[in-house]
């Protein structure tokens, strides 16, 4: 079964400029903006400009240029946030929630970059 992208999802509307966002970085391949409900002092979402639902959708179907551009944008956002090596307090977590078990709320690929405090262990048991 192929991937199905909903062009009315909230991040598609942000990309079309129909909903405002607090932009941190933008280029031809990616948009990075602050999460509306931050869970850390720095909480930025980095999304590709193309219509991809999940990371595996992007990894399987995006062009080489899109993959390189998006990946470089994540690197640039880390540098802009001051969380790349060399900065005091460096460190962050990159998360791409995908699908039902991943508890993905918005069906447009987004990598959360969380930083600015100790983030605890990666997963806590929910059951
Ligand atoms: P996820 O569960 O990985 O799909 O997370 C979706 C994230 O998008 C959540 O952290 C929300 O707070 C965030 N979010 C939803 N709507 C907006 C918006 N309009 N602007 C910024 N972040 C948003």
What does this structure look like?
This protein is α+β, with helices and mostly antiparallel strands and 127 residues long. The protein has a single domain (10-115), classed as HIT family, subunit A. 24% of the residues lie in helices and 19% in strands. A five-stranded antiparallel beta sheet has the order 1-2-3-5-4, with helices on one face. The radius of gyration is 15 Å and the shape is globular. The chain binds adenosine monophosphate (AMP). Residues 10, 19, 21, 33, 35-37, 45, 97, 103-106 line the site of adenosine monophosphate (AMP).
Output the keywords.
127 residues, 5 strands, globular, binds adenosine monophosphate, HIT family, subunit A, alpha+beta, five-stranded antiparallel β-sheet, 3 helices
Layout of secondary structure:
Layout: H1 10-15, E1 23-26, E2 30-34, E3 42-48, H2 55-61, H3 64-81, E4 93-95, E5 111-115
Antiparallel strand pairs: 1-2, 2-3, 3-5, 4-5
The structure holds adenosine monophosphate.
Q: Which residue ranges are poorly predicted, with pLDDT under 50 across at least 5 consecutive positions? A: none
What's the CATH superfamily, by name?
Answer: HIT-like
Helix-strand category: alpha+beta
Distance between the termini: 30 Å
Q: Which sheet architecture does the biggest sheet show?
A: 5 strands, antiparallel
Can you tell me the CATH class?
Alpha Beta
- Helix content bin: 10-25%
What general outline do the C-alpha atoms trace? globular
Percentage of residues in DSSP E strands: 15-25%
The average pLDDT score comes to: 94
Gyration radius, to the nearest Å?
A: 15 Å
CATH fold annotation: HIT family, subunit A
Q: Say which molecules are bound, naming each kind only once.
A: adenosine monophosphate
- Total of helices: 3
The protein's oligomeric status is single chain
CATH architecture field: 2-Layer Sandwich
Total beta-strand segments: 5
| SSE succession | HEEEHHEE
Instruction: Describe the strand arrangement of the main beta sheet, using strand numbers.
Output: 1-2-3-5-4
């Amino acid at each position: 079964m192929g991937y199905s992208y909903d062009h009315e999802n909230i991040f598609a509307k942000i990309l079309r400029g129909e909903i405002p966002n607090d932009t941190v970085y933008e280029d031809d391949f990616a948009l990075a903006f602050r999460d509306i409900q931050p869970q850390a002092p720095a909480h930025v979402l980095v999304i590709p400009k193309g219509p991809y639902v999940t990371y595996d959708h992007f990894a399987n179907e995006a062009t080489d240029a899109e993959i390189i551009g998006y990946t470089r944008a994540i690197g640039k956002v880390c540098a802009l946030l001051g969380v790349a090596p060399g900065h005091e307090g460096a460190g962050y977590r990159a998360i791409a929630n995908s699908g039902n078990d991943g508890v993905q709320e918005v069906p447009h690929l987004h990598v959360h970059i969380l930083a600015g405090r100790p983030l605890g262990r990666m997963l806590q048991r929910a059951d």
